[in-house]
Amino acid sequence: MKKIILLALVLVTVFYSCKKEKQTETDQSSLITEIAPVSPEMMENAVIYEANIRQYSPKGTFNAFTKDIPVLKELGVKIIWVMPINPISKIKRKATGDKFTSEIADEKEREKYLGSYYSVSDYKAINPEFGTLEDFKNLVTTAHKNGIYVIVDWVPNHTGWDHPWVTAHPDYYTQNDKGEIIDPINPETGESWGWTDTADLNYDNKNMRKEMISDLSYWLKEANIDGFRMDVAHKVPVDFFETAKTELNKIKPIFMLAEAEQPDLLVNAFDMQYGWEAHHIFNEISKGEKTVKAFDDYMIKIDSTLQRDDINMNFVTNHDENSWSGTLKERMPNNKNIFTALTYAMPGMPLIYSGQEYDLSHRLKFFEKDSIPKTKGSYFELLKKLGYLKNTNPALNGGKVAASYKRIETNNSNILLFERRRGENKLIFMGNFSNEPQTIKNLNQGKMLDYIANKEIVLNNQDITLQPWEYKILIY
């Protein structure tokens, strides 16, 4: 009798185990067990997301962010760039402006200021504000299961003042005539950049370079990350990055983003650079200070200064712009949609910054705890739709073998009209970058899909009028 009961229990257990396993497989049908190595193919149709862990959630932790990775997948995100994960120096910790926390007498007031992410006290440690190493590794694993790569924000130009190197290896740092370590200096003026919470590293020191590469390697081996975003990359010697890329690629293929607009960095070290110039042009057109001609001039310029396999990161906001230059509501109060769509339609890779997807309308505090909204609205849906198109239509390929870009003349300085093509895939972007209705005459593009409106459109030598800041993405 006991054997019969035991057998029954075993059968019931197996039944429910199988049922549970089947449900799990169904629930996670879109997950993968192992992500493919970084490759040029991945870069062609990727959207990159900048994760500000501190401000992403009320808790400001890795775990709180990790729960939302499937939401990022909805937006077509293929790469997550995590802002610096390392501990922040306590010595000369920034509070606000040029003020240090040590200058604040009130203890409660002093505790509010968490310092700059970019004043690192230990390259091989985790900021306890965000959680543990295991929490971060789980973030990376979860991203990989969702087909998303993870790169870490790295600060190679300087460290915080309580980094171990300051006392153990003062020769790793730039020193003045008195032998004192100094903060980073603007070579054009000879004056401080104002980053007084940091100590400038000396790249003439070969031992420092070796240790830096060793610390970079640690994160590939320990946390299985997929690359780095290099802070102020233009202030670090190009040959260091070339050596670092060669050494790191021996561990695994990596993706490298330079916070710079410097073509020689892209030759052998970086895959992608910031499209700063385009971003500033967007702001100026938005305010009526420039016309589409500025964008045309920019596209002609990069066609001659960049190599075929160089990638620009296109953006309407990021952590610096949001905190210091203004929100999209401030800079693009009535026209952020057209500029957002342009970052997806033009050659390159579009960026989404934490909170942008939820139409963030306030400047996030830089040195203090803050948070972003989490209500999905029309702008979220727009990013979702643009992300899907970027991921699936080769005409928007923007990586090492980008789809072609052909400007179509309209004889109207307020209208931008261009074609992207890859093989049989063709896409037309048209936009009115002005406060007045504008008409494009004699369009002869045939039958197409108006992608955003999701309706068919036929243009056989017809005129089309675009309302202020209206745009269309037409696909075949």
Structural commentary:
- The chain has a single domain, classed as TIM Barrel.
- The protein has 17 helices and 18 strands.
- It has helices at 2-27, 40-44, 53-56, 62-66, 69-74, 107-111, 133-145, 164-168, 206-223, 238-249, 265-268, 276-286, 292-305, 319-325, 328-331, 336-345, 378-392; strands spanning 47-51, 77-82, 94-96, 99-100, 149-154, 158-160, 198-200, 227-230, 255-258, 272-274, 311-314, 349-353, 404-407, 415-422, 425-432, 438-450, 455-466, 471-475.
- The protein has an 8-stranded parallel barrel, surrounded by 4 helices. A 6-stranded antiparallel beta sheet has the order 13-14-15-18-16-17, with helices on one face.
- Residues 1-28 have low confidence and may be disordered.
* CATH-defined topology: TIM Barrel
Largest sheet geometry: 8 strands, parallel, barrel
Rg is 25 Å
Poorly predicted spans? 1-28
How many DSSP helices? 17
Mean pLDDT: 93
Number of strands: 18
Fraction of helical residues: 25-40%
CATH class assignment: Alpha Beta
Please report the distance between the alpha carbons of the first and last residues: 71 Å
Supply the number of structural domains: 1
* Side-by-side strand order of the widest sheet: 1-2-5-8-9-10-11-12
**Mass-distribution shape:** globular
The CATH superfamily is identified as: Glycosidases
Q: Structural class, judged by helices and strands? A: alpha/beta
Oligomer class: single chain
Q: DSSP strand (E) fraction?
A: 15-25%
CATH architecture: Alpha-Beta Barrel
